[in-house]
Amino acid sequence: MKAMSSSLLCAIFTSVLCFATIAAGGDDQFLFSGFAGANITLDGVATITPDGLVDLTNAHERLIGHMFYPTALHFRKSPNSIVQSFSVSFAFGIHPNYRPSQGFAFFIAKSMNFSSAIDLQYFGIFNTMNQGNLSNHIFAIEIDTLLNSELRDIDANHIGIDINSVISNESHTAGFYDDNNGLFNPLNLTTGEAMLVWIDYSEETSQINVSMSSLYMSKPGRPLISTIYNLSTVITEVAYLGFASGAGKDNTRHYILGWSFGMNRPAPIIDIRKLPKLPRVGPKPQPKVLVVVLPIATGTLVFTVGLTVFLLVRRNKKYAELREDWETEFGPHRFSYKDLYYSTGGFKTKNLLGVGGFGRVYKGMLPKSNVEIAVKRVSHESKQGMKEFVAEIVSIGRLQHRNIAHLLGYCRRKGELFLVYEYMPNGSLDKYLHSQDNKPTLSWPHRFQIIKGIASGLLYLHEEWEKVVIHRDIKASNILLDNEMNARLGDFGLARLYDHGLVDSSTTHVVGTIGYLAPELACTRKATPLTDVFSFGIFILEVVCGRRPIRQNAQEKQVMLVDWVLEHWHNRTITDTVDAALHGDYNVSEACLALKLGLLCSHPFVDRRPTMRQVVKYLEGDAESPELTPTHMNFEMLAMMQNEGFDPYIMSYPSSMTSHGSVSDISTTGTGR
Ligand SMILES: Nc1ncnc2c1ncn2[C@@H]1O[C@H](COP(=O)(O)OP(=O)(O)OP(=O)(O)O)[C@@H](O)[C@H]1O
Ligand SMILES: *[C@@H]1O[C@H](CO)[C@@H](O)[C@H](O)[C@H]1NC(C)=O
Ligand SMILES: *[C@@H]1O[C@H](CO)[C@@H](O)[C@H](O)[C@H]1NC(C)=O
Ligand SMILES: *[C@@H]1O[C@H](CO)[C@@H](O)[C@H](O)[C@H]1NC(C)=O
Ligand SMILES: *[C@@H]1O[C@H](CO)[C@@H](O)[C@H](O)[C@H]1NC(C)=O
Ligand SMILES: *[C@@H]1O[C@H](CO)[C@@H](O)[C@H](O)[C@H]1NC(C)=O
Ligand SMILES: *[C@@H]1O[C@H](CO)[C@@H](O)[C@H](O)[C@H]1NC(C)=O
Ligand SMILES: *[C@@H]1O[C@H](CO)[C@@H](O)[C@H](O)[C@H]1NC(C)=O
Ligand SMILES: [Mg+2]
């Protein structure tokens, strides 16, 4: 009887809580079933929708959104006592876009100040510098929908326990263990369905349990992840709770539907009937009447509009484009010439970002979305192979990685091709290294971060995407810096123009850029991941030394950067090669590692070069740094190769080093096609 009345009381209490939508049961318990009118704190791009969903990433930009419980909670009874048991549950939904995107995280942190945190895979709570720092005092559960191998993610659909670091202490593919048969059932985080997560911590055992299920299931008996970690070393006496996401420009949405918390007690149960509804993924089903009327109406409309557009286009030859039947399947990636024309102010010189081997690059701003773009205008003769080329650049447009500048789409006109890239406000790396435009000197941590970033981007291209992608033109001018000075590999697809015979039928080009070309390319002409590794090696040396791959010395002789570094290596004066502009302010062991890797990657023998996976391991300190013994790398061998005329980079070139080599250049040494 007593038990019954108390459970009745409990039920009444809970339902009162639910009806109020939000209610705080003192400091140590709360429940939100939807957030309409709720007292919560938002910052960044987070908003509450009219329906009462918290939308953490309501932005077209790459920005961060946070949501906090408005007050700090006391996780310890007194400053020196242990962190008490607690329990959290929340309901969320991820609305995917056509592109994979980062996830979001629940956190308990010492403050609401995340001003130094960064977006994407750092979820707006961590940054690249504070990984594993005990003074972070951050406990987080990441709901991650992208594979970032440099952060040791297990897959693109997982949940992880993050303690002071975005590298999870423990993680598991999203899903649950079935109560009946004990089998694991995976759940797809990005189907747009609502799901529930529970987090329980016990002060007696220091055990952390994390469970998840779909919205209509009860809490699974066996947790998805269970680990022992004494959170008394992590969570501060008073701490803030909340959610964060730092999604990309891709329109993916991270919604929180409901949330509850209990200190020293289970989190109140979220009544799923009271939760706001997630927006629908995909088109709305139509009422019956419309099914008949609508096709006729739209048919007529489409015809009229089509006719008008046709006539307008006919009249307005200025914006004429080349569009063929096969392009319909690439529709979303096809930009209209008119949009590109207006967005770049009619390809005005004022908006010219630079001129490269293929054409001019202009800055633009897309009219509707206000997204900044860089448009590369390439002229081409033949249209043979165009279909294959477009299919390839569209598939390359699906690449998504923190260190890759996205290719957004393309447009065609007669004799011209336009490639639309994400605009990178800080321009290309070469401008910083070779101090043009009075750019500031890059500090050592920046340089090392750039090398690591590009290594991880290349690893993604070579091994982690669905196809092996070879970049073929890695060099400082194709490394772009975004607004956080994060390095991104740019200029995809261009090398492919050659393969498809779209450029220059008269002079046959070598794909790539002089100084970065692997020697075997001269004979085999076949780009492989290891020819990229070679260019990457030269690139590392260029970043560390602040010198171009080929330089003329006082006697007007061509000096190869790699030879010069190698000479210093043998003379044990390797640190003399580090960029003097750093004034000795750099980390010696990191610099030596980078130089060593640079030499190893640009090894003339293909089979001596490491793969990008090994390179990333060395750079992250996960593998012993490689030995560079005389047998690996010796002078006689290089000298021998050079005497045999194998080494394309000792040949004399016209002074413009940024230009693409052509057969007429190469053939002087008999290594042309
Ligand atoms: N997405 C971008 N955002 C900002 N600036 C860019 C972007 N893409 C290119 N640029 C700028 O335009 C310049 C010219 O680029 P382009 O790629 O045409 O030449 P390149 O890189 O020197 O040679 P290559 O033709 O071999 O790539 C670059 O040096 C860079 O500064
Ligand atoms: C929201 O909660 C905070 C902390 O409990 C309180 O100070 C503030 O007055 C509340 N705001 C509203 C509008 O209720
Ligand atoms: C947030 O922290 C940064 C340092 O990380 C500090 O510079 C800034 O003043 C802080 N902002 C507030 C509002 O406390
Ligand atoms: C950890 O972070 C604190 C404060 O940001 C900083 O002072 C300290 O140097 C960092 N420690 C390490 C090992 O990076
Ligand atoms: C997780 O944390 C525990 C306790 O500190 C530690 O022993 C374990 O190695 C960590 N696991 C990983 C994968 O970092
Ligand atoms: C999850 O669902 C989305 C959309 O239905 C699909 O694109 C994606 O491939 C699925 N992911 C997994 C891991 O099955
Ligand atoms: C974690 O799950 C295990 C297994 O179900 C259970 O025995 C334990 O009590 C749970 N711990 C917490 C803190 O909930
Ligand atoms: C956790 O650490 C605190 C001290 O930081 C200690 O007092 C407590 O006993 C530890 N808890 C467990 C379960 O080991
Ligand atoms: Mg370029």
Q: How would you explain this protein's 3D organization?
A:
By secondary structure, the chain is of the alpha+beta class. The chain folds into three domains: 23-274, Jelly Rolls (Sandwich); 317-423, Phosphorylase Kinase, domain 1 (2-Layer Sandwich), CATH 3.30.200; 425-673, Transferase(Phosphotransferase) domain 1 (Transferase(Phosphotransferase), domain 1), CATH 1.10.510. Strands 1, 2, 4, 5, 8, 15, 16, 17 and 19 form a nine-stranded antiparallel sheet that branches. Strands 3, 6, 7, 9, 10, 11, 12 and 18 form an eight-stranded antiparallel sheet that branches. Strands 20-21-22-24-23 form a five-stranded antiparallel sheet, with helices on both faces. β13 (175-177) and β14 (184-186) form a beta hairpin. Bound molecules: adenosine-5'-triphosphate (ATP), 2-acetamido-2-deoxy-beta-D-glucopyranose (7 copies) and magnesium ion. One 2-acetamido-2-deoxy-beta-D-glucopyranose is lined by residues 169, 229.
What are the defining features of this structure?
binds adenosine-5'-triphosphate, alpha+beta, binds magnesium ion, Phosphorylase Kinase, domain 1, 3 domains, binds 2-acetamido-2-deoxy-beta-D-glucopyranose, Transferase(Phosphotransferase), domain 1, eight-stranded antiparallel beta sheet, disordered N terminus, 14 helices, Jelly Rolls, 673 residues
Number of strands: 28
Q: What average pLDDT do the residues reach?
A: 81
Q: Tell me, what is the CATH class of the largest domain?
A: Mainly Beta
Instruction: Give the N-to-C terminal Cα separation.
Output: 93 Å
CATH topology title of the largest domain: Jelly Rolls
Strand content: 15-25%
Category from helices, strands and their pairing: alpha+beta
The CATH architecture name of the largest domain reads Sandwich
Individual helix count: 14
Bound molecules: adenosine-5'-triphosphate, 2-acetamido-2-deoxy-beta-D-glucopyranose, magnesium ion
Instruction: Point out poorly predicted stretches.
Output: 1-26, 503-509, 642-673
- Supply the number of structural domains: 3
Shape: globular
Largest sheet: 9 strands, antiparallel
Spatial extent as radius of gyration: 29 Å
Helix content: 10-25%
EC number: 2.7.11.1
Membrane topology: Single-pass type I membrane protein
Catalytic activity: L-seryl-[protein] + ATP = O-phospho-L-seryl-[protein] + ADP + H(+); L-threonyl-[protein] + ATP = O-phospho-L-threonyl-[protein] + ADP + H(+)
GO cellular component, one term: plasma membrane
